[in-house]
Design brief:
alpha/beta; Rossmann fold
Length: about 450
């Protein structure tokens, strides 16, 4: 096997008949993204193995002081390889690599170490990184692929938002999930070919998707809304949070989950702040990052606008306003882990009327304990209606204890709502300007964000 700096490369020859295994995190988004990779000749499979065997595989192959997401991601991959389902000489693994200060940047090296320990060091590991931190001759993301993957994020965020708002009320169980699958198949078909995505068609799809979900038969009175924030893997992954969304549904609640686009914007915004706070990056690079930020903001705005115009559903947050909410709470130089964004998302949910929040965090994730659990007291002091519970996820934490803490939060929510019934969401007119020059808000957008009654 060819190697580079001690690692096994994924070659062009491997692309033909190797299956690339991808750990789970965002089921809807990843389904769309893997469909795009398949269109470019990659054989990909999203891992769905769960349970004690995954945790045990992680504990056997990763140091127990390593953060829980690393243990689960690596454990899921090792467990899949040991299942006997795959030809180990015709399989590769894919893992993201961020390059930030978080231990997540070391996942790829921990995975390779685990493979060597398990006698499978010959299996190539592909780094999925926009910055090409590691390159492989048999895998690359072209500009056209990145264009389609980007729209998979916007589509995924919209589908997740609508699915979460329909699922607790659906007349026919599973109908909203079936609609997600139907749209995932249609969007994949539309993104076939080697050309760029036509944005006019994307915007038309937004409106048609919303109309389809609005037409789903629903029943019942509004349920208690519970926001989910936290470390990105544990927040989104059913494996990482013990199927938290399903549990909330079983308890008669509606889950509210901020989208992945907010995290993407957070990463770009931090690059802009690096220049402002520390003088990093050249003026040219700063202008490029500024252009990307404005581009992403406009795309997020178009989704909000489509949801708002139809009028049935509550739109997601608007990032410049999310940024603005942190004033007086936390500085934008705090960016390890989910940094200031975690605090901002809690404030955003409270402002939207989702005052019940589960802050999910790996037990050993110090940055997120600071910006999550560490900020809860200040948030509650200034927002007395806030009902927040921090839940640690770790191999040693029992599921029953986690669920009991959430049940207590829900009991508090019922008492609060009984005293002051939740106000209905009202449709408001959109501002004319979707974003402001200095990464924050202009007056019209600020007035709009503050006037919406979610």
């Amino acid at each position: 096997m060819p190697e580079s700096e001690g690692r096994v490369l994924f070659t062009r020859e491997m692309k033909k008949d190797y299956t690339i295994l991808v750990p789970t995190m965002l089921p809807i988004h990843f389904k769309l993204m893997l469909n795009i990779l398949r269109e470019y000749g990659y054989k990909c499979e999203l891992l769905e193995n769960t349970g004690k065997s995954v945790v045990d595989a992680g504990l056997r192959n990763v140091h127990n002081d390593t953060c829980y997401p690393a243990l689960l991601v690596i454990g899921q991959m090792i467990d899949a390889l040991e299942s006997g389902k795959y030809d180990l000489h015709k399989v590769a693994l894919m893992i993201s690599q961020t390059g930030g200060g978080c231990r997540a940047s070391n996942y790829i090296h921990l995975l390779r170490k685990a493979l060597h320990k398990a006698g499978m060091g010959y299996i190539p590991v592909i780094s999925l990184s926009v910055g090409n931190m590691e390159s492989n001759p048999g895998f690359s993301l072209t500009p056209v692929m990145l264009d389609k993957i980007f729209y998979a994020i916007t589509y995924g965020d919209l589908l997740m938002l609508l699915h979460n708002q329909c699922r607790p009320y659906e007349v026919e169980p599973g109908s909203s999930e079936a609609l997600v699958d139907r749209w995932a198949a249609r969007l994949t078909e539309e993104m076939r070919g080697r050309g760029l995505v036509r944005y006019r068609q994307v915007k038309a799809n937004y409106r048609e998707i919303i109309r389809d979900f609005a037409a789903l038969p629903r029943q019942g009175s509004p349920k208690t809304r519970v926001g989910i924030v936290g470390e990105i893997y544990v927040k989104f992954s059913p494996l990482g949070n013990n199927n938290l969304e399903d549990f909330l549904l079983s308890e008669g609640a509606e889950a509210v989950v901020p989208g992945l686009m907010d995290f993407c914007l957070y990463c770009v915004y931090n690059l802009l702040m690096d220049h402002k706070l520390y003088g990093l990056h050249t003026k040219l690079r700063h202008k490029v990052f500024e252009f990307i930020y404005r581009f992403l903001i406009k795309k997020q705005w178009d989704v909000i606008e489509a949801v708002e115009e139809e009028g049935t559903f509550r739109p997601g947050g608007y990032f410049p306003h999310t940024v603005d909410l942190t004033k007086g709470y936390i500085g934008h130089g705090v960016k390890m882990g989910e940094g200031w964004l975690l605090t901002a998302e809690m404030l955003e949910l409270i402002e939207q009327g989702t005052c019940n929040i589960v802050c999910t965090q790996p037990f050993g994730c110090l940055p997120n304990h600071i910006v999550g659990k560490g900020m809860m007291r200040l948030i509650k002091e200034r927002n007395p209606q806030a009902n927040i519970v921090a839940v640690d996820y770790d191999p040693g934490a029992t599921r029953i204890n986690q669920e009991n803490r959430i049940k207590l939060m829900l009991a508090n929510a019922a008492a609060i709502e009984g005293a002051a019934p939740e106000a209905p969401w009202e449709k408001k007119n959109l501002p004319q300007t979707p974003y402001a020059p200095e990464y924050g808000l202009d007056e019209s957008a600020s007035d709009y964000a503050m006037s919406i009654k979610w």
